[in-house]
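Journal club side-thread
Mid-discussion, someone asked how the predicted structure for our own chain would compare to the paper's figures. Pasting it here so we can look after the session.
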Amino acid sequence: MSKIRRGRQKYYNVFSYFYDLFIKLHSHNYGEETRKFLVDSAQLEEKIHPRVLDICCGTGSVVLAFAKQFSDILAVGYDFSLGMMHKARDKDVSDKIMFINGDAARLSFADESFDVVCCSHALYELKNEVRKAALLEMKRVVKPSGLVLIMEHEVPRKRFIKMLFYIRMMTMGPKDSREFVKQGISPFEKIFVNVTLAHSRSGKSKLIICQKKPPGVADPIPLESMAKIQDKR
């Protein structure tokens, strides 16, 4: 990990003590609605024991929302800040979620391990090359028919609010954060086969829904399942 990444890691370890208050002030009570929008978009209702990975999970709000909605879920929160993860673990009173410390650009999971991989309001904070590597890793670990869900901020329309928004982009992310947010779905179309865009009801956030293969194509049947089918014949 570079010196810059280690510096940001230390920054977020300290920021973890104020992070939830900051988000509450910034979201103006839209946080719960946004999380519900993301969880509902995962389309996991028909899945048995769904597997969900939340990249850059912060203090765990999104992965906790998944665990609350799906009782049989295998949920993993992944973040490079130990401070953030400690706060997330404290919130997980049911002890259902696995929290792992690691780099989003180098995920410690096997290929095609998860039904859904998500990242909420954090991708813009990664530098361009790290962001691309993280997206490629998300594509690698999601199942062929799974979804990669990226929640990002909408660019405000009012001039003054837009100016404040871009100031935040410059102070909390790398130099290309502003350009990344303005590009919409084009950075994702370079990596995923199918990309669609949805918007939260409040208009505060947008959801980029990514698939690594065309919709309607079924997952391959595992070899052990194929053997069982043949035995029944």
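Post-session note: The mean pLDDT is 81.
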